[in-house]
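Q: How would the structure tokens look for this protein?
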Amino acid sequence: MNRAGYKLVADLPEALRPWRDRPTAWANVSPSTGSYHLNSAGEYLYYPDGGTVGYDHPVGQIQFGLGCIASYRTETDPARKALFLARAKAQAERLIAKHVEARGAWWFGYGFDFTHAVHSGIDYTAPWYSGMAQGEAISLFVQLAALDAVSDEDRARYMEAADGALASLQVDESGYPWVVNTDRAGYGWIQEYPGAAPDSGDYTYNGMIYAMFGLWDYYAATGSQTAADLYDAFATTIATFFSLLRNAKWCSFYCQTHRIEAYTYHQHHIELFRQLNWQTGSPDFADYVDRLVDDYPAAGVSGTVQFESGSHTLCRFDTAASGAWSTAAGDDLIEQKTVTFSSDTAAPASMRRRIKGRGIYYLISAGAYTGWWVGESWSKAYLRGIYLPTLYRPTRTVTFPGGSTPVDTYKVAADGTVTSVKTVSFANPSNAPTDRRAIVNGRPMFQITAGGLTGYWVPASAVTIDAAPATA
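A: Here is the predicted structure in token form.
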């Protein structure tokens, strides 16, 4: 498989490690109803159509277990801590008890037939196997083995299971079962949904990256060169095919085979690429995060829109009642008008999002213009504050232009109040480190972390980053 030389960073801070961002809430530690709930043994099973028969759903079991481990790490109450651990161990034990050994590897099968309602070609008879589950299983077993409360005997069993799962990512599609293939150009893929024939499948992006986290966990625990090489190969694939995942100025695609817009997965893609940046230290993945954030930002941002005096165009779009995107409505323009303010003013906004085929807009939520949208445009109309931050690890490098070009930089309070402005200029291009990017008062900006500009934000449009243009 092709490899570009991505290296793994094993010494990540605890909060940045895989699955720490998805803890199981205490209220959800003992689900007893719904399509996914626990049986009498505390095992997380799938009960389709509200039935009474539970089936194995490896990804569901693994993610529930990993969430319980994340909560176990931070819980201080001994009784709750013990139950989180018991729940995680129950999922691991179920996987171990039900695994199948074939082709020198361990396989964790889905216990029910499955036909994807949207993606043609995904039609399985139980048991069937998924690369997403195989990789995530490594994370569950390795993370359990790392806990002090686990006995030496259990630790050995969990690492044996992790070894078996890792082996499944080393066999190709020449036999059955398989979850990894190499395409004709030499790029390796972990298939969340393997095809019926070799070199076929859904080529699903999120499932592959989640599976890669298992390789990071295994490498961090053991230093395995095999895991590092596999991760390098799969990271190379993800980087190479980012242009096909990306859907510029709209939400990204779920998979390569069907290229269906992933309205519910785009934010997952952002989070996953953030973690690829942390796990490799590569600015490639940080740059991809920036592009995805700007293409289709999370719509859960609200606040106060600052209007500059003068004329503004307001629009009504065909959306869901809340203002959210609706496939049926399509964001069609219903009406627009021009209003003029004699002085600077402000209005509350309940949403910031991209309108399809247009730019970023704010939905005004109170006052004379309730229900109207205004386009984001510095400095005519912008949402006050600092939002949609991305933490870079390690820091990246912004370059200020030479030629004595003046660049304004800003210190900004959380509510968007500018507390200081510094204008700088350099005869020759000048570098500075940045550890994060955010939308600051309606503009993408980088925060400087060293030198005389420490703590100041610089607009992305005024600098370049990592020797490449800083804006999409």
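The longest strand covers residues 386-400.

The two ends are 30 Å apart (CA to CA).

Upvote if useful.
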